[in-house]
Amino acid sequence: MKKYFAAVICIAAAFVFCSCAVGEAAGSSKNTGVQNGGYYFESGAGKIYINEEADTVLARLGEPSGGTYEAVSCAFEGKEIFYYYDGFTIQTYKKNGKKYIYTINLEDDTVKTAEGIKLGDSLTTVTDKYGTHYALSGDTYAYVKDNMKLTFIIQNDRVMSIKYWLITD
Prior knowledge:
Order of helices and strands: HEEHEEEEHEEEE
Strand content: 35-45%
Number of helices: 3
Oligomer: single chain
Strand order of the largest sheet: 3-4-5-6-10-9-8-7
Distance between the termini: 40 Å
Number of strands: 10
Number of domains: 1
């Protein structure tokens, strides 16, 4: 049990570090408009959009099976909260007293993007679904649409990571 909690804390710390790096690199101006475009993640509770008001999404999803983690944000004012569901994690930020979806990270191959991509798929499968208009940085393929980005980390021709992000420039 202690190993499980240690692993959760390590994962949460990695998310916090990543969100800090993304927030700092993006600059100080933050977009807080409602996002109902771009790519979306679909769970059994329906479509989830980046920058959507989080309380309605979280109510549909119910209690997160893996619990939550709260940390001081370096990308936004206040705290970010991570919600650990089976197969995916939602990260939120707070603005004007409301929580919004900041990132959605797919954690294993039991979940997939709305277009059908899951961890372990090939780069060809990704480009067949999303096209070749991506920004490439190292192993990360980023597709940008409507003020959000969808990133795939590809190693040895396999999808190792899938993450939806709010663009915060």
